[in-house]
Design goal:
565 residues, single chain, 15 strands
Length: 565
């Protein structure tokens, strides 16, 4: 019989609750948080299944958690609607595909009231919210739990799963939002304990596992069926980072979460129809967890994976590589440690963006003669230095490559600042971020080959900050930026750790800057921005009928394709 430990993080001892043992973890400045612990020597796939079902019945997130997930959801939908309005390729293709799969008990795509197969609607909607690479992100770090610091990436791409299931089952907005908290919790905590990127596996696997569990819990699946679906996802659908390799990135990069989530929902549907997938997948020595981080017979070594087939102990029974802590109630949910992108950019560039904006805010006269800038050197941590500071990204020819080029991102900020000029430069942090916010147009076909942008890019260099910087990730985004001028002056941004949008930042008015971003994207996407935002921001408290139409907001169709004809 499976035993799940639920702990509550402020009481020294509590009686068992629904077969869970409990403890409390203190969260600074917040209410205690009740947690479930899935030990490494337990069947964690079945544990996640039981946790998901229990969560949907009895969890009690704090008001701050409800607000945060609603903000992330609204942010993601505005990203998706604007991407469709600008006729971006993958979302347009996948939405058209989804609309070919009509189903009387299905779900809706953005901008449509037609019901289609749920996995197809989810794939189309998740691709749209991800297209700009501007929705929420996580870096897999929880200071409250030792060992929860693997630093895996992840993004808030998976909310369409909750909406689709709620539409199918006739569930209200509170239930849909609760399911979004659940999904973020599972994938966010997995990101804290296992780094997929270290083994060249795409980070969306964590989201696919969470999606299978969330969809199953909403649809009334049994624990065994959810365990089976998770087993199928991990056994049959592991995407590698081949989709992100090379100088120029394709549609596969932006749609990776969508395609993996489509597979996860299909696995869950098959399991509910009787298909039996691999059990106890986290302790399976030939599944990704113990394959890459063996727990028996050999030492785990990311640089030397032991594949000796004759080592029967290595391929035999053993625990998974990690304990998994999952919050049930209170404040300390994974979503509270996730980060907003205040514009369009790869989030690891946020420290450099803050650095350049700081220098411009403190020295606006730079903008009287931008040509006097001779060099901008960005000092960053790994993996930022190796991914978005990669010299291969110095000549992006696609929008997807440009938003993963730190040189391009910083150059566009400078171009926008130069257009404002020294005399009219913003006078406070909020206005600086708002007026220099990178928009979809900054990555369009015209901007991509803008001579001024390309000229600044040639002046940008990168340095690896070494151990001092690396050790501060994933807690923050450790970055500094130095600007050299023709007169011999060097300006220094100082060390940036928690730029605006990062979960630990306290200087930015988050509500205000998110409102600005949502309205910026809304002006692109829809005719009635106020009505659109009211509908999305009103999801908590929305009726089941309201949920049925929450994604049916019409988007503009008269804009040219942002990537050119």
């Amino acid at each position: 019989m499976l035993h799940l430990a639920r702990s509550s993080r402020s009481c020294s001892s509590l009686p068992a609750v629904r077969a869970f043992a409990t403890y409390h973890q203190p969260t600074a400045g917040a209410s205690p948080s009740e947690c479930t612990v899935l030990p490494a020597d337990s069947n964690q796939a079945l544990g996640i299944a039981n946790y998901a079902i229990d969560f949907m019945k009895s969890s009690d997130p704090s008001p701050a958690v409800w607000k945060r997930v609603q903000q992330f959801h609204t942010d993601s939908v505005m990203c998706g609607l604007s991407a469709l309005a600008y006729k971006t390729n993958a979302p347009t293709v996948l939405r058209a595909e989804a609309l070919e799969y009509g189903s009387p008990n299905g779900a809706t795509c953005f901008g449509s009231a037609d019901l289609v197969q749920p996995e197809k609607a989810i794939c189309a909607n998740s691709a749209a919210v991800r297209e700009w690479d501007s929705n929420g992100t996580v870096f897999g770090f929880n200071a409250n739990v030792p060992g929860h610091d693997a630093g895996e990436f992840g993004h808030n791409d998976f909310y369409p799963v909750a909406i689709a299931a709620a539409q199918q089952k006739g569930l209200d907005g509170d239930t849909a939002l609760r399911a979004m908290i659940l999904s973020d919790e599972i994938r966010g905590r997995l990101a804290e304990v296992f780094s997929l990127k270290q083994y060249k596996i795409d980070h969306v696997v964590h989201g696919a596992v969470a999606s299978a569990a969330t969809y199953g819990a909403l649809m009334g699946a049994t624990p065994d069926q959810i365990e089976s679906a998770i087993g199928m996802v991990v056994a049959h659908y592991i995407p590698f980072r081949a989709i992100r390799a090379g100088k120029q990135l394709s549609d596969s990069k932006g749609s990776s979460a969508a395609i993996s989530t489509e597979a996860a929902v299909l696995c869950m549907k098959r399991a509910m129809n009787g298909f039996v997938g691999p059990k106890d997948i986290f302790r399976n020595p030939e599944a990704i967890w113990r394959f890459f981080e063996p727990t028996t017979g050999t030492d785990a070594n990311p640089n030397n994976i032991d594949l000796t087939l004759s080592n029967k102990v290595r391929w035999g029974p053993g625990p998974s590589p990690f304990n998994l802590h999952l919050t049930h109630s209170g404040d300390d949910f994974a979503v509270m440690g996730m980060h907003f992108k205040l514009g369009l950019y790869e989030h690891q560039s946020a420290g450099a963006i803050q650095g350049i904006k700081t220098l411009l805010f403190q020295n606006p006269d730079i903008l009287k003669d931008p040509a006097a800038i001779t060099n901008i050197n960005i000092t960053a941590y790994e993996p930022a230095f190796g991914i978005i500071g990669d010299p291969a990204k110095m000549d992006p020819t696609t929008r997807q490559s440009a938003d993963h080029s730190m040189a391009y991102i910083i150059s566009r900020v400078l171009v926008k600042a130069a257009a404002i000029g020294a005399d009219n430069f913003p006078k406070d942090e909020y206005s600086t971020w708002a007026e220099l916010m990178l928009a979809p147009e900054d990555y369009g076909i015209d901007a991509l080959y803008d001579k001024e942008t390309r000229g600044i890019m040639q002046k940008i260099t990168f340095s690896h900050g070494g151990q001092e910087y690396d050790d501060k990730y994933p807690e923050g985004i450790p970055t500094s930026l130095q600007m050299s001028l023709a007169n011999g002056t060097t300006l220094d941004s100082g060390f940036v750790m928690y730029p605006p949008g990062q979960s630990r930042n306290t200087s930015m008015d988050l509500d205000k800057i998110l409102e600005h971003k949502n309205r910026m994207l809304g002006a692109i996407a829809v005719e009635d921005v106020d009505g659109c935002l009211r509908k999305l921001d009103g999801l908590k408290g929305a009726s089941a009928a309201d949920v049925k139409t929450v994604y049916s907001i019409p988007f503009k169709t008269d804009l040219p394709c942002i990537d050119g004809p």
